[in-house]
Design brief:
39% of the residues lie in helices and 13% in strands. The protein has 13 helices and 14 strands. Bound molecules: pyridoxal-5'-phosphate.
Amino acid sequence: MVSLFSPVFYVDECLENIRECLEKGWAGPGVKTAEFEKEWGKYTGYENAVFLNSATAGLELTFKSMKELYRWRDGDEIITTPITFISTNHTIMDAGLKPVFADVNDTLCLDPQSVRDRITTRTRAVAFVGIGGNTGDIKEIAQICREHDLKLVLDAAHMSGTRIKDTGLEDIVDVSIYSFQSTKVLLTADAGMVCCHDGGIAKKVRTKAWVGMDKTRTPWSDENTQRWYFDIVDFGGSYFGNDIMAAIALAQYRHLDSDIERRHKIADRYREKLAGCDKLEFIRVPEDCYSAQWLFQIVVPKRDELMAFLESKEIFAGLHYLDNTQFRHYRYAKGTCPNADYYSRHILSLPFHLRLTEEDIDWVAESIIEFLEGCASDKA
Ligand SMILES: *Cc1c(COP(=O)(O)O)cnc(C)c1O
């Protein structure tokens, strides 16, 4: 059996950190949370990092905070991608903004020309998703954002560790949202992080993450001299991260760069084993992208038959993602992104995790080739 994902925890180090939390009574957001925020801010190059209970929470609070601080109106438009996990687009809509779908290109990320074509007087930001860790053509998109005075939000759920060689992602992206969900590159059980330069956004996200509470104020004064007073200055909910998740994240973080190197080795072997097969295509990863390599995806004919064939051999592949404009909830955009529609029907995510052996990789690759060489050459 070869599974799509298989979370690898550095158990002893995780337990050592968790034990410290439990012994000291640290469970909520505290010392470990602050430590991980500091580390992650340094690692990503952002001044502010706010640890939350998921990336979905991070996206929601980001769009709501940007809308309020930058005075965007209901129905203002965010140009976004249809090839993503639905959280990206749900959170735009939940903030009262309108997801306007642009098409993707051969990187599976937003196509710069399509983004240009979607800009209107109501466009406020572009939401870019680095699929599988790929940066796609984000530099060109950042340039478009600068030209049109748009904010650039990065759903970096797949991108813990992704870098661009000649610039920092943090130099071109306003807000990056990371996921530390249990299948992602840096994994906990569930957590996320909002990273940004704008201290106003960070403060608003942090305030909204816990019921809009501000402990530096009281309802009758801008200064709080008693620790038991507080003011409620904003609307919010319960979205904050906790020390147990931060304890796991800190242990996993120490292995992030070497984990990614191993991911690249696995990807290289897949690429080498599949190179001879002219019935499939690889996803374009630009030269200057050092990908976190969360996924290894290929484009194939008869994708669903191939997936069923692989499952008959207990090889479990995945689909990242169904074109979001096909969903009932987003059908207002149906038919607007032909490339996304095409890829949605032809992409396949191969089993990809740190427990894969060379034999697993070779077996998966051979099985794919066996199927593709065996089926008629039509690219249905
Ligand atoms: C996983 C994922 C999310 C959501 O992350 P959670 O931490 O599970 O909320 C958002 N966007 C993308 C692209 C993802 O893959």
